[in-house]
Specification:
Strand order of the largest sheet: 2-3-1-4-5-6
GO molecular function: phosphatidylcholine lysophospholipase activity
Largest sheet: 6 strands, mixed
CATH topology: Rossmann fold
Distance between the termini: 12 Å
Radius of gyration: 15 Å
Number of domains: 1
Shape: globular
Number of helices: 7
CATH class: Alpha Beta
Organism: Xylaria bambusicola
Structural class: alpha/beta
Protein name: SGNH hydrolase-type esterase domain-containing protein
Number of strands: 6
CATH architecture: 3-Layer(aba) Sandwich
């Protein structure tokens, strides 16, 4: 279940699929049996269900995600959320706690789910990007803490030289097709990591 804001929706991609089609193709070509889950269907791909909500902040993403997780019991949740909080400067001091609260609610809704939690993409606006960098550090620490508790979680770090760069953004926020390819590659590697750790199971 792809979960997040407009990047999960696929804004900026030429086909409306964002990273989702690219990730689906990478996984299925490696032998994974994949069904995309969610209440929304957008993009040109056949298997195009997701929970990507344009403009939504963390608490709003949580509400949609928990409802859908209860209904679908996904094996994997790929989560990219918090960009709108950073853009709007919304309750950033509690952003780590709010993300952690969302994780706990999702695990309550679907206890068998493995969460692949991503850091946020760089932003062209320097002020927003400073917020993004701080947010990403909280994400990394949070994943380390939950991994130490043997929770089913893996980090997908988009904020590296391998992730989308400012030059891969169509509007300073959303990736172009090349940027989404980089995102798909990182999601894929993180899901492979989850598989190698024995974290994936039928729910």
């Amino acid at each position: 279940m792809p979960l997040g804001g407009s990047i999960t929706y696929g804004v900026g991609s030429s086909d409306g699929n964002g990273y989702r089609r690219l990730l689906y193709e990478a996984l299925t070509s490696s032998g994974f049996d994949v069904t995309m889950l969610g209440s929304r269907r957008t993009g040109t791909m056949n298997n195009n269900s997701h929970e990507g909500w344009r403009g939504f902040k963390i608490n709003e993403i949580q509400e949609k995600g928990v409802k859908s997780a209860k209904a679908h019991l996904p094996s994997i949740l790929t989560i990219n959320g918090g960009s709108n909080d950073c853009i709007q400067g919304f309750d950033l001091g509690n952003s780590g706690k709010r993300i952690d609260g969302m994780l706990q609610r999702l695990w309550e809704a679907s206890p068998g789910s493995t969460i692949i939690l991503s850091t946020l993409l760089k932003n062209k606006d320097t002020q927003v990007n400073a917020r993004v960098m701080e947010f990403n550090n909280r994400i990394r620490k949070l994943v380390q803490q939950r991994e130490a508790e043997n929770r089913k979680i893996v980090l997908a770090d988009m904020d590296t030289p391998h992730g989308p760069q400012v030059g891969d953004l169509v509007d300073g926020v959303h990736p172009n097709d090349d940027g989404y390819q980089k995102m798909a590659d990182i999601w894929y590697s993180s899901i492979q990591m989850a598989a190698s750790r024995g974290l994936l199971q039928e729910t």
